[in-house]
Amino acid sequence: MSQTQTYTVVLQPEPEGGFTVRVPALPEIVTYGADEEEALRMAKEAIELSLEHRLSRGEQLPESGQAPVREVTVVIATAA
Length: 80
Prior knowledge:
The chain is of the alpha+beta class. The chain has a domain at 10-56. It is built from 1 helix and 3 strands. The protein has one helix spanning 36-56; strands spanning 10-13, 19-22, 30-33. A 3-stranded antiparallel β-sheet has the order 1-2-3, covered by helices on one side.
């Protein structure tokens, strides 16, 4: 039996190029892609492997709901 789940991924642009990818529902996942397409492909592969591993150990799969993403603005004091 198969089912489909959708997981939120966070693409962090890197100064040298490419993207570091994290999956909030699966905190063990940190991967990288040279461009957005590769980053998403790597994320998909990492998610599939993580879920496969969890199932093989009899663990429950995390919910696939959307993780809320918000921005917070802070004031940074500079030296006078």
